[in-house]
Write a structure and sequence with these properties.
The chain is an alpha+beta fold and 271 residues long. It contains eight helices and ten strands. The chain is 35% helix and 31% strand.
């Protein structure tokens, strides 16, 4: 089978799997964030086609495991395509996993995270927790597997996600650069970083305009080839911090939360 035909058939299979699965919003948020806020170099080195396929696989992979044992082949495809010079972060988790507060707390401890999980973050109330297994690969092909735990909080149907995991050590400072402007604050010696990023999710055949290319360069826009059928714009608010070798992220789409509000949320969790 020639390479082009094989790639087309694999892509069709991934989309068929994704159509039948419904990943929780917390998983979608984490995957989108990883694909677009992890090493900036990754976005420039991947082809449009591969980013779209990888995004579908990252969301659907464990659902495919459960649905028909196809997860192994999907994962093998990703590993085969990730050649040196094409770094990234890939996630997999059970789409129907719903941990209660005490179980989520226990899973955090198993992941090496020392954090007392609150019932509420701001006005958002704990809804459920879930496990996410991540594999990070840097630009020279070195890999690192990290267990992450996510907690989803809700308010009037809106969702806010808290994720925590041991910090990645495989990436260089250059690979971790993020062009999106940030606002920072200090709490008990810990630096909190807030970003309000404009994401544009587009079909995999989408052609960027010169204006969009310049906006990306300026950190004003993140173009995500996420397999969308149409162009969709969202604002992604997040506050990120690292403490005692653990990385924490509170995030959500179109929450309207400003920097000070998210700093206050994070401050409640910083020891």
């Amino acid at each position: 089978m020639d390479e082009i035909k094989m790639e087309r058939e694999i892509k069709e299979m991934l989309h068929q799997c994704a159509d039948e699965l419904h990943a929780p919003d917390s998983m979608q948020t984490r995957v989108k964030f990883a694909l677009n806020n992890a090493p900036a170099r990754k976005r420039h080195l991947w082809s449009k086609r591969f980013v779209a396929v990888a995004a579908v696989a990252a969301i659907a992979v464990t659902g495919a495991f459960a649905a028909g044992g196809m997860g192994g082949s999907l994962h093998a495809f990703l590993d085969a395509q990730l050649k040196p010079g094409m770094g990234g972060i890939f996630s997999e988790g059970w789409s129907d996993q719903r941990l209660d507060l005490s179980s989520t707390q226990a899973h955090l401890a198993d992941a090496g995270v020392v954090l007392t999980l609150p019932d509420k973050i701001g006005e958002y109330t704990f809804s459920y927790g879930s496990d996410v297994d991540t594999t990070a690969r840097n630009s020279v092909g070195e890999t690192e597997k990290i267990a992450e735990v996510d907690a989803t909080y809700t308010k009037d149907g809106a969702e806010l996600n808290l994720s925590a995991h041991k910090s990645y050590t495989v990436f260089t400072e250059d690979e971790m650069e993020n062009p999106v402007p940030a606002t920072t604050a200090e709490v008990n010696g810990v630096t909190l970083t807030y970003r309000d990023a404009h994401y544009r999710f587009v079909p995999d055949d989408y052609e960027k305009s010169d204006e969009e290319k310049q906006q990306e360069k300026n950190g004003e826009l993140v173009i995500s080839y996420y397999g969308s059928d149409e162009v969709e714009d969202k604002m992604f608010q997040s506050v990120l911090w690292e403490q005692d070798g653990v990385t924490y992220l509170i995030s959500g789409y179109d929450t309207g939360l400003d920097a000070q509000t998210m700093f206050d949320m994070a401050a409640e969790l910083v020891k």
